[in-house]
Amino acid sequence: MSEQRRSYEEYRTHYPARKLARRLGWFSIGLGLAEVLLPQQLSAALGVHGRGGFVRLCGLREIATGAGLLLTDNPKPWIQARVAGDVLDLLALGAAGQRGDATTAMVAAVGVTGVAALDLKCAKDLASEDHPVTTFDYSDRSGFPDTPDQMRGRAASEGSMKNLPQVKGMGAADRETVDRH
């Protein structure tokens, strides 16, 4: 008759998502600085000349979300702000493609879509922290089939290593690769 395991609910931090959030924060700051310092060049590269002011505003938004991601213990709202910014960027690039060079705007939209996919994955993974995980308590287990006192000396009393068959070379490698299920 097996004993019922104690279980409890706990919230777990999703460390890979938090690491990705920090990297996206640094990316935001870098992109934002480029947009703030070189707005005319970036708007020309996107095929929408004369929109430097709008590019500079987007840069300020990027710097704000990047700083928020790097300075907080709760990156969830800042990642959601990045996702919202990605939607705005895609809408702006769509409008720019209709007014200017559609090919250039399409290439930029593909880049924004790739970053948006990372932002969405990060937001989804961070949202998993809000759901408790059932954890079972195995603290009463030692890993041995009997108590340590009963196990003490058992290996020596059941024979020595000299009596075991020694497998060498490819036979040993084959033995290790056999599926034991």
Detailed description of the structure:
This protein has 181 residues and is mainly alpha-helical. Helices cover 64% and strands 4% of the residues. The protein has a two-stranded antiparallel sheet with strand order 1-2. The longest helix has 26 residues, at 102-127.
Brief description of this entry?
By secondary structure, the chain is mainly α. The chain has helices spanning 15-37, 39-45, 52-71, 76-99, 102-127, 148-151, 154-157, 170-177, and strands spanning 7-10, 133-136.
Rg, rounded, reads: 29 Å
Helix content: 55-70%
In terms of quaternary structure, what is this? single chain
Order of strands in the sheet with the most strands?
A: 1-2
Gap between N and C termini, in Å? 25 Å
- N-to-C SSE series? EHHHHHEHHH
**Structure class:** mainly alpha
What is the global morphology?
A: elongated
* Proportion of residues in β-strands: under 5%
Biggest beta sheet attributes: 2 strands, antiparallel
The average pLDDT is: 84
* Number of helical elements: 8
Question: Ranges with pLDDT <50 over ≥5 residues?
Answer: none
Strand elements, count:
2
What labels would you give this structure?
mainly alpha; 8 helices; 181 residues; two-stranded antiparallel ribbon
Secondary-structure topology with pairs:
Layout: E1 7-10, H1 15-37, H2 39-45, H3 52-71, H4 76-99, H5 102-127, E2 133-136, H6 148-151, H7 154-157, H8 170-177
Antiparallel strand pairs: 1-2
Helix pairs in contact: 1-3, 1-5, 2-3, 3-4, 4-5
